[in-house]
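User: Some background: our group keeps a shared notebook of sequences we're curious about, and every so often someone picks one and asks for a predicted structure to add to the entry. Today it's my turn. The entry only has the sequence so far, pasted here. Could you supply the structure so I can complete it?
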Amino acid sequence: MTDTSNARPAESEAQAPRQSRLRRLMRFIPLIAPVLLWAVPCWVLLHTGQHWPLPVTLVGTALFALALIGMPLMMMRGHGRRQQDRAAIIGDTLLGTSWILFTWSVLLGVLLRPALTVASVGDSQDRARIVTWAILGITAVLLGWGYAEARRVPRVRRLDVQLPRLGAGLDGIRVALITDTHYGPLDRTRWSARVCETVNTLEADLVCHTGDIADGTAERRRAQAAPLGTVRATRARVYVTGNHEYYSEAQGWVDLMDELGWEPLRNRHLLLERGGDTLVVAGVDDVTAESSGLAGHRAHLAGALNGADPDLPVLLLAHQPKFIDRAAAAGIDLQLSGHTHGGQIWPFHHLVRIDQPALAGLSHHGPRTLLYTSRGTGFWGPPFRVFAPSEITLLVLRSPHPPTSI
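Assistant: Of course. Here's the predicted structure to add to the notebook entry:
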């Protein structure tokens, strides 16, 4: 029989250097990413056989170099301590532009150029220039369309969700979900008001906001958030914190939402009763809350359910889908989340899926737990949404035994 008692410490010691090296490499990503995002399109568009006139090549290369320097500088000034909104708008717009340019430079550089060669289209210079114009054309279209998608009032997504433990008296309860409004450098006060008007047309019993209200403090973004006070619900308006609140004095946002008439469900619950049946509506702080250092802020599911009858169905608000592991272990019936933005700008959703168990829509976890992940109502950073439309969600909760009509 082999003694493995000494093998495990040795394995741990071997893994520790690998993990520390990985962490050191991760630190360089903020430096490497901007270079790749701008250098790859610059090379594909200007230096792969197009043979542009020298002034075009020099001016184009200079513009890419300027964007490479300007983007991180503007983002630091915009989102750092200074929080200069104009700088943030420029930096965010450059970030979105670079991501789209990079994506299509890679895709068309890999796919279109060989296809043109196989089809014997022109000479190598012709093919290189066709690829360049195709990349620039697609980028321009996606930027215009993506901006319009990000700035419009989201469409309402409606779906019925059956909860096996939901009592017949609660059948048809209407739950409206908004999330990730991200009020920020671009003033969206009018947009905010129109979103709230749309929510009010849904005549919801319960309206939920699952966090990331804004980028910036409550004092700084108060005007954009103020329309949330006009939202109507027949039973309750409830809110939980998102990770972005913890970048911007989260307690100020909790206090403002309370002032606007929303109930912050900070590791607590309320009871929604109708027709002799009861639904537990619980909420937890975001999973990043504890690391923020704010006293009393942490995701505490046991605290949220403390005192609730374990036989009652539970609707849980948690900002990030990744909380579903804890929710499923506790037998939660339905968790509502946001955070992912559905990827926001394709194909960023592949990176989101590395961190989160769901991207958008309804998914099953464990024997009875459902998760609904919204693509978000607003946008973060780059003012673009590409193949990831925003949404206002209306979930109609259904009982397996609806009341019989007389």
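Suggested note for the entry: The chain has two domains: 10-150, 155-398. The first strand starts at residue 155 and ends at 162.
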